[in-house]
Amino acid sequence: MKDFLNRFFQGRYGAYGTDKMTRFFLLVAALLLALSFLTPFAILYYFAFALLFYCYFRLFSRNIPARYRENEFFCKKTDKVFNFFKGFGYNIAQHKDYHIYKCPDCNQKIRIPRGKGKIAIKCPKCGKEFIKRS
Q: Running DSSP on this structure, what letter comes out for residue 19?
């Protein structure tokens, strides 16, 4: 069976594994499918089915450059959103151990460890010195 699948996927886009776009659409399809069972909106089931069909179409496609371009376009448009939320979580974790101040002149963010009392902070970008409580 494994050899059959390997031969079947040779020359197809799915032979390289799933890309970000396919994984995202599979996740959305699973969520829509779950919502269609929990809510009276039957149309969600059809949207989930359409997304699953599109994912299988992408996996079985022999037009590899077109699927690659679709994934690159998807990544270019969505990476900003994903990175925003990734950075947001990182900033929350940083606020536990550090104060983050902005330089009054150039607005450069400066990370200062908590619990050091009043300290003079020198901006690494413009050299301005200011006093803040850590």
A: -
Tokens of 76: 């270019």
C-alpha span between 90 and 3 (Å, rounded): 44
**Alpha carbon distance 110, 100 (integer Å):** 6
**Residue 53 near residue 8, CB atoms below 8 Å:** no
Nearest to 104 by CA among 76, 133, 129: 129
- Based on DSSP, count helices (H) and strands (E) in the chain, helices before strands: 4, 4
**Percentage of the chain lying above the pLDDT 90 cut:** 31
Least Cα distance to 105 among 132, 125, 131 occurs for: 125
Angle between helices 20-38 and 43-60 (to 10 degrees): 160
CA angle 71, 72, 76 (to 5 degrees): 115
Kindly give, in sequence order, each residue whose CB lies less than 8 Å from that of residue 17, ignoring residues fewer than 6 positions away: none
- Structure confidence by residue, pLDDT tens digits, 88-119: 777 777 778 888 888 888 888 888 888 888 88
Question: Which residues touch 4 (CB under 8 Å, ≥6 apart)?
Answer: none
The CB density around residue 28, as the number of other CB atoms within 10 Å, is: 15
